[in-house]
Amino acid sequence: MTARAGFNPDESPLARLATRGGRAGGPFLDASEAIAGERLRADFTRGQLMPGITQRWDSQPRQARGSKGSRDLSDSAIDARKRVDAAIAAVGPELSGVLLDVCCFLKGLEIVERERQWPARSAKLLLKAGLGVLARHYGIKPERANDRPVIRRWGTADYRPTIGGGTE
Fold it and tell me: Considering only CA atoms, which of 43, 66, 63, 42 is closest in space to residue 52?
């Protein structure tokens, strides 16, 4: 996974799972699963869904109880929240909790297992299953070693571009 501005791959549990070897010799998470998890995390962050734990120093009064607080959010934050809601709905209630804990709240797998009183290594398997469903929801195709790269373009299936810029 490549680093980008504002993103530290060392703090992500997914980055470690995407580089750490699994039983078959390759990484435990394939690239599509890791990308899907980081995309969920990016939308979670853009949507300002992380609870605040510090004191507010601005002079603005807090929102009244029961209000959504969407007046203070930008359109991009509202859109990000909608994308998070759609992703969580697509994954379902069985797998969404572990995805939110690991991808968004950056909890380690051992902490998730302890908090939910799950058996050892169960969070790892449920995380992989949830990330697979999430990648399918986002339309991210898994990469295989023998697959050729897919060229994405606009056009119909029988469309063929001309080479050399000339007309036929």
Answer: 63
